[in-house]
Design goal:
There is one protein chain. This protein is about 40% helix and about 25% strand. It has about 500 residues and is α+β, with helices and mostly antiparallel strands. Among the domains are: about 190-450, Rossmann fold (3-Layer(aba) Sandwich), CATH 3.40.50; about 470-503. The longest helix has about 60 residues, at about 5-60.
Length: about 500
């Protein structure tokens, strides 16, 4: 081998060694880079995991309320319940006996609002002999025990749920039941409401839902027949009167006048006197407040102010600035069906009677008044009168003396608080009481007259329907929840691999 060949070989070996060193150096650099990036990734994952764990521990310890994004806020407490719960000033125990996590979550929402409310979960009743002995709870029992001091109430599944056999849906009434139980055990003395009977056009059963609502909100409710009882009991907080089919007797009239002069409170629901029947004894009572009830009916022309194009089903505006409504932030409307109007004495006569008037509910600017019931045309005719902004609900405060004031709330409609079923469609029927704020208007009127301002509220619809699914429907739901996301992930991995190989 000559010298030139040796030099060439030497240079070639030198280049190879240099290349090998470069490759090794690059490998070392790549290894360090990989190690650095991997370490940072692991550190980042550890931080994320630790943060998640920390947040979960924090949330669990502070018992934060869930955020409810549903339109009707079905997974959070209603504003009425929040107001009631905030005003509780007594210690209340909610004891859940073998109930599910959902009931525990519901009870904890109350606890998060007011720390005077405590929640206890009891899954083994045999370990709590005090509950067995004091409340007669058996080992097989389950339900919710709500207690405050010596007063208690036990809620069973019948109180927490009901079932609509027409639509095959289970109705969730847990919040309504639990809130009413808390009111019940924390109320020192229940207001007593008497429902006057004896000459009524409708029986008490016609107002069953309304009267039941009163009981649920801790009123004692009794029917009162003055001809058998002889007098209005001294414990009467409110006397409810409804549409009469015939006049009161002179004895009944005198008893009610005595009740008024002692500062009594009256809530009067009445339809228009469409028959024109003379009722002088009833009118004597109304004269004390300077009013009379129309014989005619108020109808509506504004399509936005009537129910389903029915001119006799009028949507009335409830004023938010009255003594009845100004205790809460309210923007209410109610649906009166075949309503009359209230006719007032002039201002001088009202002043002479010592009566102050607050308009609670009124009609629209396009309403009109009809006395000829033979007319079937729903549009205004030449014989009809303009009745813009007619008063269909009023609060009347009558000053008896410097220390005594009697109050009457009157609505010229009886149907709006009734159980009358109204068909919205072939599949949907609804009670008249459930339209718009009908229930709120009636219940808040009682709350005002009994001086329970904390009960003047806008009530949440408690009827949350829970549909039972079939096995096939359940399979479809599980497929949507689990199978489809898995398929999407697999497709994503395949697409990623294909794109990676093309690079």
């Amino acid at each position: 081998m000559n010298k030139d060949n040796k030099d060439k070989k030497s240079k070639k070996d030198s280049k190879k060694e240099s290349k090998d060193l470069t490759v090794k150096k690059e490998k070392r650099v790549d290894t360090r880079k990989w190690f650095k990036e991997t370490s940072l990734t692991i550190l980042l994952i550890a931080i994320i995991v630790a943060t998640c764990i920390g947040i979960n521990i924090f949330v669990e310890n502070v018992n934060l309320e869930d955020i409810d994004f549903t339109e009707d806020k079905i997974h959070s407490l209603s504003e009425e319940t929040r107001q009631i719960t905030e005003n509780i000033d007594k210690e209340v125990e909610i004891i859940l006996i073998k109930m599910s996590e959902s009931e525990e979550e519901l009870a904890n929402r109350y606890r998060s609002i007011n720390d005077k409310i405590s929640v206890e979960v009891v899954n083994d009743i045999t370990a709590r002999t005090d509950l067995v002995d004091e409340y007669n709870i058996s080992a097989n029992s389950y339900g919710i025990l709500v207690k405050s001091g010596e007063k208690y109430k036990i809620l069973t599944s019948n109180d927490l749920y009901t079932y609509d056999y027409a639509t095959y849906t289970r109705i969730d009434t847990r919040e309504e039941a639990l809130t009413n139980a808390i009111i019940d055990v924390t109320t020192e003395e229940k207001p007593v409401v008497y429902n006057l009977i004896g000459h009524n056009k409708y029986s008490s059963d016609y107002f069953y839902l309304f009267l039941t609502d009163l009981v649920d909100e801790s009123y004692d409710v009794y029917d009162l027949d003055l001809l058998t009882r002889g007098e209005i009991p001294e414990d009467c907080s409110v006397l409810i009167m409804t549409t009469l089919a015939e006049d009161l007797t002179a004895t009944e009239k005198d008893e009610i006048l005595d009740y008024i002069n002692e500062g009594g409170k009256i809530l009067y629901f009445t339809d228009p006197n469409s028959t024109g029947k003379e009722m002088p004894n009833l009118q004597t009572i109304l004269d004390e407040y300077g009013i009379s009830i129309s014989e005619g009916v108020v109808l509506e022309q504004d399509m936005d102010k009537m129910l389903y194009g029915t001119s006799s089903a009028i949507l009335v505006t409830v004023s938010p600035y009255t003594s009845v409504t100004n205790k809460a932030d309210m923007n209410l409307s109610a649906c009166f069906m075949t309503s009359g109007r209230i006719d007032f004495e002039d201002s001088e006569k009202l002043e002479e009677l010592g009566v102050e008037v607050e308009t609670l509910a009124s009609t629209s600017s396009d309403s009109f008044y009809r006395t000829d019931y033979s007319i079937t045309d729903s549009s205004k005719t030449d014989t009809d009168e303009d009745a813009a902004y007619s008063t269909v609900g009023a609060l009347l405060k009558k000053k008896i003396d410097n220390d005594t004031t009697s109050e009457m709330i009157v609505y010229t409609n009886n149907i709006f608080i009734s159980n009358l079923l109204i068909a919205i469609s072939q599949q949907d029927q609804r009670y008249a009481l459930d339209f718009y704020n009908n229930e709120d208007l009636a219940m808040n009127s009682v709350a005002y007259l009994t001086e329970r301002e904390n009960m003047i509220l806008i009530r949440k619809d408690a009827e949350i329907s829970t549909y039972a699914v079939t096995e096939q429907q359940n399979l479809i739901i599980l497929s949507v929840i689990f199978a489809i996301p898995v398929v999407i992930v697999i497709i994503g991995i395949i697409v990623w691999q294909v794109r990676r190989r093309k690079k």
